[in-house]
User: Fold this.
Amino acid sequence: GAILAKARNVTDSMVEASSLGLADSLTDKERADDLIYPRLERIREISAHIACAVIRAAQKAGVDQIADLRSMNDKELNEFVTSKMWNPM
Assistant:
């Protein structure tokens, strides 16, 4: 998220957003199974979710440098982030 937003620096709020993004990504089943982290099979979905949270935190802190991302709604931002992920295929 910090790279995609071209953040001038990583703020405490961005680090917090990544932590909360990870914690919020647990499903009810994963919580019931007492997992601390989401299942690895969901790594791409979770990574996009966290990156979006970090981008929004960078925007809120005013350290982002990609103005086009500011006008995207959450769905558009998630699609943008996903499009930038490495694809092994």
Helices lie at 12-24, 28-32, 43-61, 67-70, 74-83.
